[in-house]
User: Fold dTDP-4-amino-4,6-dideoxygalactose transaminase from Ornithinicoccus hortensis.
Amino acid sequence: MNRLNVMRPWLGEEEVAAVSEVIRSGWVAQGPRVAEFERAFADKQMIAHAVATSNCTTALHLALLVAGVGPGDDVVVPSFSFIATANAPTYVGARPVFADVDCDTGNLTPDTVNAAVTDATKAVIAVDQGGVPVDLASIREFCEPRGIVVIEDAACGIGSTFQGKPVGAGADLAAWSFHPRKILTTGEGGMLTTPHREWAERARRLREHAMSVSAAARHAQVLAPAEEYLEVGYNFRLTDLQAAVGLVQLGRLDEILTRRRELAKTYGAATSLISGLRPVQDPVWGTANFQSYWIEVLPEYPISRDGLLGLLAEADISGRRGIMAAHRQPAFSERDWGTASLDNTERLTDNTLILPLFHEMTDAELDRVVSVLRTGGCRHG
Assistant:
């Protein structure tokens, strides 16, 4: 029996051909393919501007910078998230303040944000955790009268919807990931989206050392103009090689989402018949892409979360522990990160696991996973 992984990106000959074409062009760094990918991504996400970056973490970094967040500011973030969500505020000299999440969605709510805000709060980073769309409108309704900017961490969100539109479409700033663990991959890579032209223009400069003229624009001219460095910038660029892959992947997105939701529906029907397992579901305000299909192991299930992971491993199935609690990690456990209760975060971190789900997963492979879940549900003692 072959090992069954949690995730496998869907890559094929179209991506190979796209990368080969870029190599033959002689321009492989950030250039025309990146610009084309940005335009296509912005159109798909129904947003005015998209700025490609080296990864989602650098996109979050730029989002905070263009929003004016800096030393002395607090940024409310969920502890229930990958560590990058908390790291990004520290890069600009701000303090990440941890907030709890809703148990059903794994996301921030206005109440959990309210419990964490301080007089110094300048921004909130709201995550679409595991692809479950955050209720962005209600969080913005709470934050904006207080002068707090809301940044959407849509690292896992491509293809999810909120109130009938793509997630991120209603955000002042949203950051995206194209890591291989995500539904749309460029190997590594990220994107910053915004409806604000001036923020997009500044982000484009900052990602390229804050040069007044981009490298691509200089290359297009025989006598390139002298560039200026308008502020301290960064090297956060995406390459045309990666963008070429991204364009192919973007064209496949709808097909990928359809299959993932089919698999998630099958998982949901099967796990609902097993006492003690609670599967992730769509919230009332939108649809998830099921980038991570997670279940919570409740007390009535005969074995623990870690026991179930061990049972899956015995069947050569690779599950994963649920999302981390960043406040428990050594990088933050000794820092001043606020005083909000994080009970739901710890419950989910300790009792959830992620099951395999990927585009090319077969019905028989899904049945293998469900069979183990049923076996665990029949254990005694």
User: Anything to note?
Assistant: The mean pLDDT is 95. Residues 13-251 form a domain with the Aspartate Aminotransferase; domain 2 fold (CATH 3.40.640.10).
